[in-house]
Design brief:
Blueprint: E1 6-9, E2 17-26, E3 31-37, H1 39-43, H2 45-56, E4 66-69, H3 74-86, E5 98-100, E6 103-104, E7 110-111, E8 124-132, H4 136-147, E9 151-160, E10 171-176, E11 185-186, H5 192-195, E12 202-205, E13 208-211
Parallel strand pairs: 2-12, 4-5, 4-8, 8-9, 9-10
Antiparallel strand pairs: 1-2, 2-3, 3-11, 6-7, 12-13
Helix pairs in contact: 2-3
């Protein structure tokens, strides 16, 4: 499977690059025809810093108090907070931006414990997510933030197949489906590969993939 990998470079900064693998993959919410490998961009500090620098350009004019991290984006969020707090042309300059991660209860609901709710309640919150396919994880996250009375200041991602949420909140990403040739996401029942009886290559999520 790895032998099919192709490298794609960001148009904004060619130093930022990811690998994509064509095939037949299952996520929690859909089937996709490309696996987007963003592991290095999340875990390597050099690349995470480059991603943060590009994402920061979208939020220089936006007050950010807290970054909520989904899908292991804490490294990027730390560099992003530093960019927004230190750039002289940022309205968040001089701020102390909180970086937090939601918890999941026994019903798999996103929650924030009492000791960190004050970093969400009434604060301008940036949601940071690694990869967006259908937008369901974003919608679930936004419901949680709104429940704790957070103000949605923006959504940042490394890769996103959507430009905005159903309620018109823009998703700012380094890569989009336009960067991946012929990228498609399908509901399980409508997947062409399944209809052609093509076996799955792997099950994928924000942590990576497991071959089948």
């Amino acid at each position: 499977m790895e032998s099919r990998a192709m490298e794609i470079r960001s148009k904004a900064n060619p130093k930022i690059r990811l690998n994509v693998i064509p095939g037949h993959f299952a996520t929690n919410h859909s089937h996709i025809n490309y696996y987007i490998d963003i592991t290095k961009l999340k875990s390597c500090h050099k690349y995470a810093k480059l991603v943060a620098e590009e994402l920061a350009k979208n939020y220089l004019g936006t007050q950010i108090d807290t970054i909520i991290c989904m899908e292991n984006t804490e490294v990027i969020a730390a560099f992003l907070a530093d960019e927004l707090c230190t750039r002289s042309n940022s309205v968040s300059a001089g701020n102390n931006i909180n970086i937090i991660v939601p918890e999941y209860n026994s019903n798999n609901q996103m929650i924030f414990r009492d000791n960190i709710q004050n970093t969400v309640w009434g604060k301008n919150v940036l949601l940071m997510i690694s990869s967006v396919t259908t937008g369901k994880t974003i919608n679930r996250s936004l419901e949680c933030i709104q429940y704790y009375n957070g103000n949605i200041a923006g959504i940042g991602a490394i890769f996103s197949a959507i430009d905005e949420t159903p309620n018109a909140i823009p998703v700012c990403s380094i890569f989009s489906e336009k960067d991946v040739p012929d990228y498609h996401s399908y509901p399980y029942a409508q997947c062409p590969a399944c209809k052609n009886k093509n076996k799955l290559d792997a099950i994928v999520n924000s942590y990576g993939y497991s071959k089948i």
